[in-house]
Amino acid sequence: MAANWEKVENNQGVLTVEVDASQVDAALDQAFKKVVQKVQVPGFRKGKVPRKMFEARFGVESLYQDALDILLPTAYGQAVKEAGIEPVDRPEVDVAQMEQGKTLIFKATVTVKPEVKLGDYKNLSIEEKDFSVTEESLDAELKRMQERHAELVAVEEGAAQNGDLAVIDFEGFQDGVAFEGGKAEDYSLELGSGTFIAGFEEQVVGMNVGEEKDITVTFPEEYHSPNLAGKEAVFKVKLSSLKRKNLPALDDEFAKDVSEFDTLEELKADTKKKLEEKTAQEKDQYVREQLVLKAAENAEIDLPAVMVEHELDQMVSEFGQRLQYQGMTLELYFQFSGMDESQLRDQLRADATSRVRTSLTLEAIGKAENIEATEEDVNEELNKLAGVYGRPADELRKIFSAQDGMAALYRDVQTRKTVDFLVAESKVSA
């Protein structure tokens, strides 16, 4: 097999591949054995039609596509390796010659990983940020503890307030006609959360349990459904039940109930210590992220659009998974946010672009500084993961290996070591 790589423009090029005639004929043999099992010819059982008779009746050309399906993946993979390129998307393949007894010739138009021209990445400085623990932040943390241990109490009398958990039935109508996706029963809604279309929750506030009400809202102009975009709609809403948080008092009894301490002062001191540990970690993370962003800003990269699109695919998938953990789907999120997937992708695009730039920059710095993940580094990482997941390191290694995850683990460790290098070479301390 022979491969020739010719860069055309930016990050695209053409990979011309020639595959020996002997391999073509071998692939045609495999294709025949597969196809003949499905062919019916009078006088012969399935799978028993002679090759010459098959070709005379159907033509050897009928085997070409199956033979190509056999040849192309392996030939393309070997050609990519031989040419020393790193494709970032599926190639566009054009078969120039495919014939029995002759060399297979195909051209693959390929988008490859871009070259990175590194700028300054040593002795970087970043904007300072205050991570000190204040009385206000301590009070806010104690307030959150109160919220977490609050009792949800059913409200029998009185109007709904922001912060209440309202259970509602609703159905939406536009010009008197119910629209798809606008109906739900026993839907739990935290008032003031901003989950629904603007103006909806504000009109639930003030309702009493058992009350029914028509709520009028206007869908955003950019709403994903053209039938509703910019239109006024009426939701028939019934408030089925209402729950309100009953916050416990911040006193010694509260400290005893939620911790191992006997007094509120002891709980405060412990909370402050934990906040200081947390903010120290946040500062470390901030420094690392800012240094990576700064190094990426200083680099010159002609970023292929397809790499950003692939990153967006991953980010939308991650977002959908987070919604599922919260009991919501992407479809329901789109209905109540007024967005569609295209708008969500546009919203995430800047972050996706940044992710790809920083990833490419760190990879380039790692190569420039000969930073590698050693077997010892990976063993250390596996031991850390074993402590987190409570499973033996050897078992985790087998899981990673079975799922083709060891290469990714090596990359993760190398990336972390590269960021460690940036911190060590910077003008700030994490």
From TrEMBL:
Entry's InterPro entries?
PPIase_dom_sf, PPIase_FKBP_dom, Trig_fac, Trigger_fac_C, Trigger_fac_C_sf, Trigger_fac_ribosome-bd_bac, Trigger_fac_ribosome-bd_sf, Trigger_fact/SurA_dom_sf
Q: Where in the cell is it found?
A: Cytoplasm
Q: Which GO terms describe its molecular function?
A: peptidyl-prolyl cis-trans isomerase activity
Top-level taxon of origin: Bacteria
| Stretch forming the signal peptide | none
> What reaction gets catalysed by this protein?
[protein]-peptidylproline (omega=180) = [protein]-peptidylproline (omega=0)
Major location category of this protein = cytoplasm
Which principal EC class is assigned to this enzyme?
isomerase
Q: Which PROSITE patterns match?
A: FKBP_PPIASE (PS50059)
| EC number from the UniProt entry | 5.2.1.8
Q: Where do the PPIase FKBP-type domain residues begin and end?
A: 163-243
Which keywords does this Swiss-Prot/TrEMBL entry list?
Cell cycle, Cell division, Chaperone, Cytoplasm, Isomerase, Rotamase
Q: What is known of its domains?
A: Consists of 3 domains; the N-terminus binds the ribosome, the middle domain has PPIase activity, while the C-terminus has intrinsic chaperone activity on its own.
Q: What task does this protein carry out?
A: Involved in protein export. Acts as a chaperone by maintaining the newly synthesized protein in an open conformation. Functions as a peptidyl-prolyl cis-trans isomerase.
What family classification does the UniProt entry report for this protein?
A: Belongs to the FKBP-type PPIase family. Tig subfamily.
Protein's recorded name: Trigger factor
